[in-house]
Specification:
189 residues; mainly alpha; 5 helices
Length: 189
């Protein structure tokens, strides 16, 4: 069977859905850009769009040819450090914006995180059932990059107190962390 025909019907439906999710995300990023005030968030958003646009082209080419793409899956490296701020600070109660003028960096970063979550889910589900090995690998290899972008957005939100991280009391944390033990001995054959 020629590589461009080595796709199952179910796989093509899943790939179509995953590409549609990515397309919607790219279009949403385009809509959000005009509302961004933070230079850091704007740079992040532009880096994501550039990376995701190349990824889109790689997936489309792979789906059409069934073969190794011209531009292989790249690795996304976030620019944030991994420092998470723990604890809760009181904030004003939130409600949905009632005017486009109320859309701010907190809103946009939340939308960006939503795009990444949807895309990671779609790519993961698709990669589990793709019959073409090259297309399956492109989807599977892309998931860690989407996760990295989502984590970068989370860190931006956390640093700006848009996404606060409460912690359990130390004794509760220890109880949960100690609630599992390693398997002892060897695995059955």
């Amino acid at each position: 069977m020629p590589p461009q025909a080595s796709h199952g019907g179910h796989e093509l439906f899943d790939a179509h859905e995953a590409l549609s999710t990515l397309t919607g995300g790219l279009e949403q990023y385009l809509l959000y850009e005009q509302h961004i005030k933070s230079p850091e968030l704007k740079t992040m958003q532009q880096r994501h769009r550039t990376f995701l646009t190349q990824l889109y082209n790689t997936i489309v080419e792979t789906m059409k040819t069934g073969q190794e793409p011209t531009v292989k899956t790249q690795t996304y490296n976030m620019q944030q450090n991994n420092d998470v701020i723990y604890g809760m600070q009181p904030t004003a109660p939130k409600s949905p914006s009632q005017s486009v003028s109320q859309i701010n960096d907190e809103c946009v970063s939340g939308y960006m995180l939503g795009v990444m979550k949807s895309t990671a889910s779609a790519f993961t589900m698709t990669s589990l059932e793709v019959t073409n090995p090259v297309l399956r690998r492109v989807f599977a290899d892309s998931v860690p990059n989407i996760v990295e972008m989502a984590y970068e957005v989370f860190l931006f939100q956390n640093k700006n107190q848009y996404y606060q991280v409460p912690q359990l009391p130390p004794q509760d944390m220890q109880t949960i962390m100690n609630s599992f033990a390693p398997i002892q001995g060897t695995m059955p054959h």
